Amino acid sequence: MKFAIIAAGEGSRLAQEGVALPKPLVRLQGEPMIQRLIRIFRECGAESISIIVNTLRPETEAFVRQLIADGQAQVPIHLVVRSTPSSMHSFSELAPSLRGSDFCLTTVDTIFREEEFARFIEDFRQSDADGMMAVTDYIDDEKPLYVGTDSELNITGFYDQRQPDSRYISGGIYCLRDSALDVLEHCMAQGQSRMRNFQRALVAEGLHLVARPLSKILDVDHAEDIQKAEDFLALNIDN
User: Fold this and answer.
1) pLDDT of residue 236
2) What is the pLDDT of residue 239?
3) pLDDT at res. 238
């Protein structure tokens, strides 16, 4: 199984709020966020890890290349350096390296409990679904994407507003089969640019998606989110 990290965002809100480091290099529990994901993916048996970083902050590219040179990643890294207009475009840049395999994709600032993530990956490996989405009922997002599910947690839709069947929101962690990349190609050809529209297209094109709840998933979008993430991970360690 392959893994992928979208780390090509500008991180403009963090910069405007006084955070000097590029977002992927912001440290949580003393570990840069991008290195944390690489470690976790490796521990989950990653066959390879594909990463896209932007051209605006060369520090991130240099950091990843140093990890590769030092052998610290301990797993093949496919690095793409390109600034893109959206996360879907970033995903599209990574797609060629993900072909022919099941894969897990997430953004660099997605923070979760490691033991829950490991169970999520194992559940996907044992599943016959076309995709498995990590979801949470913890909502601390400016524009959450609500996930509609039936009683067995099969995903029925993705919504900008809460619906009667949408207890959960998307956590931004996607486990998918190779067939999902065909849907991505269709979205790109149609001029789509948002990951939430890609998720809607997965449902519209008939792929069987299931939701797997995680207790809490955080994004680091603002400076104050760094402390929230630190507190969350500290609680995880203590318990």
Assistant:
1) 59
2) 44
3) 44
CATH architecture of 2-238: Alpha-Beta Complex (3.90)
For the chain of 239 residues, list the mean pLDDT of each consecutive stretch of 10: 94 86 95 97 97 95 95 92 95 97 96 96 97 94 92 96 93 97 97 94 97 95 93 73
Give whole-number Cα distances, 30 to 15, 34, 72, 112, 188, in Å. 20, 12, 16, 16, 38
CA separation (Å) from 147 to 81, 135, 169, 185? 32, 8, 5, 23
Sign of the alpha-carbon torsion through 59, 64, 67, 72: positive
Interacting residues of 109 by C-beta distance below 8 A, sequence separation 6+: 23, 33, 219, 220, 221
Q: Is 30 exposed, middle or buried (0-12, 13-18, 19+ CB in 10 A)?
A: exposed
CA 1 to chain centre: 15
